[in-house]
Amino acid sequence: MGKIHVSKSQLIKDKSDKVDKIFAGLKEDSSLENFAEAFRQNYPEDWDRIVKRYNEHKKLRKKGKNYPMPEPEKYLEQIYNNYLDKKN
To answer: Highest taxon of the source (predicted)?
Structure first.
């Protein structure tokens, strides 16, 4: 019996373009919550893919071990912070 793996496809296609569009529509002082809500509204299929992949990782996790993917909200926070870091 072989080892079960999580799918390895790209989570968010054209991620940088999508993130740029979201930030373009947000106010200059928008928060992480505003970004996350805008992402979920504008790209529900990508949000569903993130949640699905996270759940796959969670199911395959060995007891006492962490899984490599952060929780979906944390994943969006990383995208948000990376964008702000590049911007500054």
So the answer is: Bacteria
Total of domains in the chain: 1
Domain hosting 48: range is 15-87
Q: Is the torsion defined by CA of 59, 63, 65, 66 positive or negative? A: positive
Report which of 88, 80, 85, 81 is spatially closest to residue 38, judged by C-alpha positions: 80
Q: pTM, whole model, 2 decimals?
A: 0.82
Q: Has residue 6 been placed in a domain?
A: no
Residue 18: count of CB within 10 angstroms of its CB: 16
Q: In this predicted model, what pLDDT tens digit does every residue of 33-56 receive, in sequence order? A: 999 999 999 999 999 999 999 988
